[in-house]
């Protein structure tokens, strides 16, 4: 596994510096997991906003492509799952779609009224979701750029992700809720309430039956997606994000620690987390 900090890329297993990139000051680093860390996206500062996206070869450190077109500070970028396309969103509410090979802008998507907090492709690359501080999630057709759905319900700034098969969207917010939406129906089908603070992140189990969330309230909660019930609650220090680390495990990151679920996520098992230094 590789991890990036500022202009340097490190190997977690060897704890050695893998590559150092020379460019403007980097404000964001994003790996393409789909193509095995071959490519790296960075946002760079210029005058003094992040208006450029740069594509790097991780192993050689070579700059492959520069994408220029945003007029607002870039807040998010995401590879398509085939690695051929990048979608990016900026502070002015504009979404741009790019061809990786040529570096050309393919489409501009407009609809959000304020800054984009994130963008993501559906698993089959046919659709894009964008989410914003305007409290909405928007679904777009990848080929035409047409807006297909607007999902509204959150009371504050929102973040979101597709389910594994692309049929649902999971969203979370500073309004302390997690919501599940049906993509084809365009409506909310589940409301998960229980957190007492800002929800920082969510991840689905591999079979889609359970969802784990972390919050400013210092709890990690495991939910049954079908019944909206909390299956387990673990109190901890402040957890900022959750990521899926393989087909049967989840990782949770907090200040100074890495946690992991050692037993997978089934209806009979609790979510167990372990700090990297061995403390439960």
TrEMBL record:
Keywords carried by this UniProt record: Membrane, Repeat, Transmembrane, Transmembrane helix, WD repeat
Entry annotated with the keyword Ribosomal protein: no
SMART domains in alphabetical order: WD40
Top-level division of the source organism's lineage: Eukaryota
TM spans (from-to): 21-41
Ranges of the WD repeats in the UniProt entry: 67-108, 109-150, 162-191, 192-223
Name this polypeptide is given: Uncharacterized protein
Organism: Reticulomyxa filosa
């Amino acid at each position: 596994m590789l991890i990036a900090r500022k202009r340097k890329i490190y190997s977690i297993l060897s704890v050695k510096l893998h590559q150092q990139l020379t460019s403007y000051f980097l404000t964001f680093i994003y790996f393409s997991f789909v193509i095995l860390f071959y490519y790296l996206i960075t946002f760079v500062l210029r005058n003094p906003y992040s208006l450029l996206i740069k594509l790097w070869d991780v192993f050689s450190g070579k700059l492959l492509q520069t994408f220029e077109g945003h007029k607002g500070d870039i807040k998010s970028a995401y590879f398509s799952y085939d690695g051929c396309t990048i979608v990016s969103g900026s502070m002015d509410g504009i979404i741009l779609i790019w061809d990786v090979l040529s570096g050309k802008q393919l489409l501009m998507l407009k609809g959000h009224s304020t800054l984009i907090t994130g963008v993501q492709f559906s698993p089959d690359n046919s659709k894009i979701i964008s989410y914003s501080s305007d409290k909405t999630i928007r679904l777009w057709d990848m080929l035409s750029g047409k807006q297909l759905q607007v999902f509204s319900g959150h009371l504050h700034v929102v973040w979101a992700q597709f389910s594994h098969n692309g049929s649902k969207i999971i969203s979370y917010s500073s309004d302390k809720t997690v919501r599940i939406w049906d993509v084809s129906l365009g409506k909310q089908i589940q409301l998960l309430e229980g957190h007492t603070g800002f929800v920082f992140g969510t991840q689905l189990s591999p079979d889609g039956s359970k969802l784990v969330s972390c919050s400013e309230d210092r709890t990690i909660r495991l939910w049954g997606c079908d019944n909206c019930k909390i299956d387990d609650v673990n109190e901890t220090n402040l957890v900022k994000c959750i990521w899926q680390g393989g087909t049967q495990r989840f990782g949770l990151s907090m200040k100074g620690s890495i946690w992991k679920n050692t037993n997978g996520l089934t209806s009979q098992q609790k979510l167990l987390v372990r700090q990297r230094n061995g403390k439960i």
